[in-house]
Write a structure and sequence with these properties.
two-stranded antiparallel sheet, homodimer, TIM Barrel, alpha/beta
């Protein structure tokens, strides 16, 4: 398969969109008609997990169909699926497969990080080729760097097969600073991590010059984005924190490489639950929110072209 | 449920054992008779994941029965189960349930770390009460601290319901030093993390004075263990790296609190595959390896009593 950085870059250009829709399904927030169609019993009742996963799958397939013209990728969040046990994992795989069929890239937000043989098992599970696992329908995965290079090596190796990585550098949650901003040699830890990512990824550059060993950098403070970009001039950035989490599109400019390249921006709840509090067709509300987000982001991206 | 630190401490005293058996099942290393009984097809063939998970479950139930008299807990490693997709998650739950029935505590080695609603979903998935998920059969989980306090809060809350945590502080892999030993204010990062863990866990102390908000500290260098113990005088330590990974029991003394308390030591491959290269009953070889490991560790633990 072609290098992930080239695939993602080409998809962005083709769709004129750097929007990623995060799939964070919370059962209580699903449209009433979806819950009614599946008939989900009260939590803890027999069959709850199967019905909850079924309703989640029905909802997310509708979301995917609605956002496919406007987004470049979806980012299913593994925790929300694991919540339903084994049937949740089947749901995650089916939803990822549906997204791939609709022409969307799939970034599995699993934030894994483990050592040796375990890291290899996770890499096979999420980016491998075994039927009935996530591997064949997943294009990229999010990873945690705390355990160092050897914990990432089995995933890095998958970049040679067309897969991509987004390694956590600076996250957008309030406590993200607890460890990530500790000062090391007069600079914050996350910049050291960014530099390490640059070293780990140096063999995987795509034909277009972008790197599939990417990073997650939250839209928390604009100066931080510029500092990380300086360390990683070629890496793809996955930027959460846009939309419901509070960041505005205008703050995203420092993330982009000249030419409006190298960035995808995630929005989860503000797209997923756009129907909330409104009447009418929920699918139309989701599609409209994705379309608006795309336009909003294109205004920033095109200012960098 | 009683505080996890009290439950674990009492189990150690009752069994005179601080041995945890890590369940890291690698299909290729299973006993030939197990593979033959299940009839596992070649990888990639239809039905491979289901048969592979089935053989893994059969093997691990035998392991659990063999080690139950000698170990205080098992530590199933989520990555090796996720490798088989959804059926692997069912296998993980069934194996955990079997261990609980055999009187073993279950530490799910998942190394999760995520933010906000996702962290809550993972906490529900692994330590919650939903039938058909891992929660009801899991006593404790391993976690990654890189995202800071709010990423751990939903798990910390579960400590009030009798569950326990082991937060990664200093891991035993060669690249563990990449980030964990970066110098912050003249001391290594992992000591800062240890101090944060102490702060996060201060409300959860058990009746016996031990803390269920524990840490993972590898047996890499003896001085490191003593330094972390100084920061966390009451926390349970989960110590990997004993046995196949290279550390010897005599190096473990600095981990213990006076009285031989506060430590569980993990051994995976040297117990799990003890039959490798030997004839005879594989179950007997596993039992004997667990018994030897227990005695080896008791010699150190009793020197601290």
């Amino acid at each position: 398969m072609q290098n992930f950085a080239d695939r993602l870059d080409q998809a962005i250009e083709k769709k004129s969109s750097c929007l990623v829709v995060g799939l964070d399904p919370v059962l209580e927030r699903l449209p009433g008609e979806v819950l009614a169609e599946v008939g989900v019993p009260a939590q803890g009742e027999p069959g709850w997990t199967a019905r909850a996963a079924s309703a989640t799958g029905l909802f997310l397939r509708g979301v995917i169909d609605s956002v496919a013209p406007h987004a470049v990728a979806v980012k299913p969040n593994a925790g929300f699926f694991e919540r339903f046990g084994a049937v949740g994992m089947d749901c995650l795989r089916e939803v990822s497969e549906h997204a791939a069929k609709q022409g969307l890239l799939v970034i599995c937000d699993a934030k894994r990080g483990d050592i040796g043989h375990t890291a290899a098992a996770y890499a096979e599970s999420i980016l491998g080729e075994t039927p009935d696992t996530l591997g064949p329908v997943t294009d990229a995965v999010t990873l945690n760097p705390y355990l160092g290079e050897d914990s990432l090596r089995p995933f890095l190796d998958k970049c040679s097969t067309g897969k991509g990585l987004f390694i956590l550098v600076r996250t957008s949650n309030p406590s993200g600073s607890d460890i990530q901003e500790l000062q090391v040699d007069g600079e914050p830890l996350y910049l050291k991590v960014a530099r390490l990512v640059g070293k780990w990824g140096e063999d995987f550059r795509g034909e277009g010059g972008l790197n599939p060993v990417g990073v997650v950098v939250g839209a928390t403070a604009p100066g931080q984005a510029a500092a990380v970009r300086k360390e990683l001039p070629e890496a793809f950035f996955l930027v959460p924190g846009y939309g419901a989490q509070g960041g505005g599109a205008e703050e995203l400019a420092p993330f982009f490489i000249e030419g409006g390249k190298g960035v995808v921006v995630n929005s989860s709840r503000s797209v997923l639950y756009a129907f909330d509090g409104h009447g009418g067709d929920w699918r139309a509300a989701v599609a409209e929110a994705a379309s608006r987000a795309r336009e909003d982001l294109e205004a920033v991206r095109s200012s960098r072209v």
